[in-house]
Amino acid sequence: MAATSAGKPLSGASPTLSPSPNPKPSTFSPDSPPPLIISSDQLRHCTDALKAFQEKLQMPQQIRNEFFILQANRMSPSEMKSRCSVALDSVNCSKNRYGDVLPFDKNRVVLNPCKDYRPSARGYINASFIETSSSESISRFIATQGPLPHTFEDFWEMIIQNRCPVILMLTRLVDNFKVLNCIQFQMVKCGDYFQAEDGPREFGNICIATKWIKTTDTAIVLRHLEVNYKDSEEPPLSVLHIQYPEWPDHGVPKDSLAVREILKRTYSVSPTLGSIVVHCRYWENRNLLHNSQYNPKSPSWGYDCFRPR
């Protein structure tokens, strides 16, 4: 995800890195993804992760202590101001869904050109490059917030400029709530920047067309989108939009079935195509969890080690 003011900086890739301007067109299928092939080194990390997990369950107090340490690690207001100066500029504040979830200056995504032509805006979008390996030629991820209605065009400008082949959305558009079992209201969790129903849509100078939609057995919604500028004669950019609407707020899924499917679908995408975009409502915890799955030393590799066969 993007680096966040809620904690210390994450590993950041240089914002100047970009994929090839003429990459091989990507094709996506609604069919089930192939199983992941795990190397012996990854299998060893799976074994270590399972052992560490079992040991951790025996120490609930240590888990609580680690949580409090994380809370104490939040950046001070002065540190936030120095490291997130562009995000905190008065002309950009309205582009942030939350005032304390901001990208760091050093690895933020810079839009060039940007529909906001004010010089002080500096091509701002609440999004950051996240690097998973120093050996990669481009950033593996862009982490961002759930787009706001007035940042939809900025969001798609980012997708086109960085030739992003996949968008991973770990939230739903709205949630239904009941109060005293009689009053129901809806909470908007993310703007509809992609058009939930089949059909074309325009955001400023950018056109979005939905080619197909499929809901999998694990409640994942797949959409094949084509993105392009209105008057462009270039072929449209193919984007696989993966939405997992069942991820709970302030929690984790009850099982790893959907997470494993997401991992398989995204892991098969060549890193040379461009960065994978990840967002939820606010991009801290879920995006961190998903991005960690691309680290072969991450405990999340254990998913495919002790999953039901």
Structure description:
The chain is an alpha/beta fold and 309 residues long. It has one domain: Protein-Tyrosine Phosphatase, Chain A (Alpha-Beta Complex), CATH 3.90.190. 22% of the residues lie in helices and 20% in strands. It has 6 helices and 11 strands. It has helices at 40-57, 60-72, 77-83, 152-161, 257-267, 285-292; strands at 108-110, 124-130, 141-144, 166-169, 174-179, 183-188, 201-203, 206-215, 221-229, 237-243, 276-279. A 9-stranded mixed β-sheet has the order 1-2-3-11-4-10-9-8-7, sandwiched between helices. Strand 8 (206-215) and strand 9 (221-229) form a beta hairpin. The longest helix is centred in the N-terminal third of the chain and has 18 residues, at 40-57. The model is unreliable at 1-18, 283-294 and 296-309 (pLDDT under 50).
